[in-house]
Amino acid sequence: MQAREALKKAVTTLSGAGIAIPEREASAILKDGLGINSLAVFKDDPTLTPHQEEKLEEILKRRVSREPLQYILGFVWFYGIKIEVGPGALIPRPETELVVEEVVKGVFPKTEAVSILDLCTGSGAIAIALSLNLPGADVTGTDISGSALVWAGKNMAANFDSASPHKIRFLKGDLFAPVGDSRFDIITANPPYIKEDVIETLPPEICCWEPRMALSGGAEGLDVVKRIISGAPEHLRPDGRLIMEIAGGTDIAALDRMSVDAGLRPEKVIKDYSGWDRVYIART
Ligand SMILES: C[S@@+](CC[C@H](N)C(=O)[O-])C[C@H]1O[C@@H](n2cnc3c(N)ncnc32)[C@H](O)[C@@H]1O
Asked: CA 101, CA 246: separation in Å to the nearest integer?
């Protein structure tokens, strides 16, 4: 089979399975799954090896069952970094880059030796992006899921070697429990925040494949959010920041009341690319 024919086959198969943008996924499958980039497809139209043909069949079979493409290809780009993902870890989303951006652009003046706690770290995407972009930072990521932390460990190994000056570690446990009474300059978090009854209405790639524990924030979507806000003051230094991703449509006034009750001062809310309130920031 020639590459162009393979591309056409992928588009037809994916579109028949109801995949939203089949052309984009088909070209990602050829490039990242089979190692044939778009230029080669149109310029040289190479013949697929038997191994590539087999691989194409296998990828399309998995994708037609609505397994996320990122799990099949095994990675996603996040803040310019290749993050490995698979079942057991949430796939990092582009809007989560806003959390990283807020820290990197200097929400905190002491960027040199800033200490950061990334709660609900999952694949470690936020923690790793922060550590790579703030080499002086001391970054700790925590998550309750051992399966997610396996991915965080792989990503740490892929991005840092033992000679690396970066300080980064991942710990398993419930929110703040693994760090005891340690305090940090910045707490970042992308907690599970989807309302329980909304999960079943989401596309199969999300509701059937991504870990429930990474999605569900309980009946109102706020179970973990509330616990993060109430625990943050005891784990932040003076002038510290909580920088947390929230669900679009979250009642900001209610979050502000929770923050004030906990002893934090609401600072600002950042909108995502679609105009939803997406990142909530409060300070000590
Ligand atoms: C929305 S995912 C975010 C993953 C990653 N930070 C990202 O942005 O891609 C939420 C993560 O919170 C973790 N989690 C859920 N409840 C938790 C808890 N009580 N303590 C610690 N982690 C928790 C899940 O295992 C999951 O990895």
From this structure: 15
Residues 122 and 235 in one domain: yes
User: Of ligand 1's atoms, which has the minimum distance to the CA of residue 189?
Assistant: 6
Q: Which atom of ligand 1 is nearest to the CA of 122?
A: 27
Verdict on whether the full-model pTM lies above 0.85:
yes
Cα of 144 to ligand 1 centre, how many Å? 7
Q: What are 126-155's pLDDT values in tens digits?
A: 999 999 999 889 999 999 999 999 999 999
Q: Does the pLDDT value for residue 108 go beyond 70?
A: no
27, 121: one domain: no
Token couple for 19: 């995949």
Question: pLDDT tens-digit profile of 157-208?
Answer: 999 987 888 899 999 999 999 999 999 999 999 999 999 999 999 999 999 9
- How many Å apart are CA 45 and CA 119, to the nearest integer? 47
- The pLDDT value recorded for residue 96 is 98
In-domain check, residue 25: yes
Residues in the ligand 1 pocket, defined by CB under 6 Å: 90, 92, 96, 120-123, 125-126, 142-145, 148, 174-175, 190-192, 213-214, 224
CA 36–ligand 1 middle distance (angstroms): 35
Question: CA dist 81 to 18, 37, 77, 127, 200, Å?
Answer: 29, 20, 5, 12, 31
Q: Is residue 263, in this structure, part of any structural domain at all?
A: yes
Rounded to 5 degrees, what angle do the CA atoms 103, 104, 106 make?
Answer: 70
Residue 210 CA to ligand 1 center (angstroms) comes to 11
Kindly give the number of the ligand 1 atom that is closest to the alpha carbon of 99: 8
What is the extent of the structural domain holding 32?
3-65
- Has residue 109 got a pLDDT over 80? no
